[in-house]
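STRUCTURE:
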């Protein structure tokens, strides 16, 4: 019988990669990188063999989609930030059986979900950046789920999260589930970016305060209150991908019946106008 052995909400900011290169940004994201490595250490210690990444950089406009290929191999340059992420080589194994089972469980629940095994369906950087730090040895299998859901309800994403848990429990896999996306996500307007030192600032103080309140709720285990505010939070604070990754994560954890708490790994930080963090949720 499979199980979720670690669940987390994580950052994937491209400046993590620049942080390891000589230049103005060298060292700027060390704590976020260290957080990724610590999360991966804990997952392996708990016996993880697979990572399910809910990727807010994979945009879908109809249904839900899972990249369930048996192998992911390629050379990635970001269309969004080609000056930040260039020629990222990757080679990971997949877990197609688990991806297929998640899609079946979700569809059986009334949430239409397709599982794909197509070599030309590549991974997005919401998956690739975390795996760069968490899966350096490529020993963990990957399943990537679309998390930028443009015409979907948070309720259907909650149900998909339930299906993720049920599929994992019906499998033989020990799984780390990652919601890969920011908290607030109002990126600086292009004309304002440099003037506001965009790399290290947040675009709205309101967003920062709501982010910090959310982190307080998670640390206190007041998940019922957080879930009541989630739709407004996603809307008013421009949550990345509509915060469907977070809805799926909490669906997998048990939604308003979840009694666990969040543990911040490292610290909350602003990046290009957005609010970023790594948080592990107790199981």
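SEQUENCE:
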């Amino acid at each position: 019988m499979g199980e979720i052995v670690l669940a987390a909400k994580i950052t994937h900011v491209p400046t993590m990669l620049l942080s390891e290169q000589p230049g103005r940004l060298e060292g700027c994201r060390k704590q976020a990188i260290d957080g990724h490595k610590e999360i991966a250490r804990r997952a392996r210690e708990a016996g993880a063999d697979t990572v399910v990444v809910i990727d807010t950089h994979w945009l879908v406009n109809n249904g839900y989609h899972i990249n369930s290929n048996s192998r992911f191999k390629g050379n990635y340059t970001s269309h969004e930030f080609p000056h930040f992420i260039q020629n990222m080589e990757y080679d990971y194994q997949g877990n197609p059986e688990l991806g297929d089972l998640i899609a079946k469980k979700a569809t059986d629940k009334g949430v239409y979900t397709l599982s794909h095994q197509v070599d030309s369906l590549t991974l997005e950087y919401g998956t690739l950046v975390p795996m760069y730090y968490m899966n350096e040895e490529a020993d963990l299998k990957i399943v990537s789920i679309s998390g930028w859901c443009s015409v979907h309800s948070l309720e259907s994403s909650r149900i998909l999260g339930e299906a993720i848990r049920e599929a994992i429990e019906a499998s033989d896999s020990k799984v780390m589930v990652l919601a890969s996306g920011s908290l607030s996500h109002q990126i600086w307007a292009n004309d304002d970016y440099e003037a506001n030192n965009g790399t290290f600032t947040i675009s709205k103080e309101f967003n920062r305060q709501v982010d910090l309140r959310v982190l307080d709720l998670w640390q206190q285990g007041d998940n019922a209150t957080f879930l009541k505010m989630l739709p407004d939070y996603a809307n008013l604070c421009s949550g990345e991908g509509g915060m469907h990754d977070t809805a799926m994560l909490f669906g997998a954890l048990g939604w308003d019946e979840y009694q666990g708490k969040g543990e911040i790994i490292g610290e909350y930080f602003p990046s290009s106008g957005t609010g970023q963090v790594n948080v592990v949720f107790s199981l």
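REMARK: The mean pLDDT is 96.
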